[in-house]
Every structure is written in structure tokens, then in C-alpha cells.
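C-alpha cells for Membrane protein. Go.
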Amino acid sequence: MQPVVVAYALYLAIAVPLTVLVARTLSRHGKTFLEDVFQDKQALAHSVNQLLVVGFYLVSLGFVTLFLTSDDTVLDARDVFEMLSVKVGTVALVLGVMHVGNVLVFNGIRRKHLNHAAARPAPVPPPYPGYPAPAPHPAP
């Protein structure tokens, strides 16, 4: 078997499980986070989480497969390891960037939800019987 074919097989054997591991971690912890944000809408939290995970898989595995080919000359074991180090390192960096992107998306969803909840006016308690209603305060 040609050394370049061995390098491709090793690359896929490392990159695909690494992608799956990162996606599962994002899914598990993202689900918990989204359930906290959408407390009253568990189905929405689950759906948003699944959509983000599917997008992560599509982009990540698409990159892994597009990055499979190489123009490098691979003649021996040293060349195999050098090619693998560049490819797996690049995939790890891209997965890290994708992870940071997902965290930013989760944070944006959380902020939007918190800002929306804070924008609701606080309910004014009804006046007690026999006491006058409190005077409205002017807006700052």
C-alpha cells in the first residue's frame, strides 16, 4: 500500500472521531445551556440545539473531506507523520474556531433572551384597600 493512502486513512481515522467528539460535547452542554435560556420552551431549546449541531457537522465534516487531498510527496513514515501533523492540527484549529463560534451563538441567544425579559415592565402591584395608589414616577 502506498504511504500516501496510509496517511489519508490515518487522517480520516483521527479527524472524523475528533469531529464527532466535539459535536457531542457541544450538543450535550449546549442543550443544558439552551434549556436554561428557554425555560418555558423545552422543545424550542432542543430544536435550536439540534440545528446548531447539524450545521456544525456539515461544516466540519465538509472541511475534513475537502482537506483530505494533498500534493505532498509521501515516501516514508516520516512524511506520513509530517503530513498528518499538518492536517490534524489544521482540523483541530478549525474545530476550535467552530466551537468558539457556537459558544458565541449560544451567548447571543442568551443575551437576546435576557434583554427581552428585562424589557418587560415590572407588574405594578394593586393598591391595598384604603390606601391611595402610588404616584407614577417620571421616566429617567
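The two ends are 77 Å apart (CA to CA).
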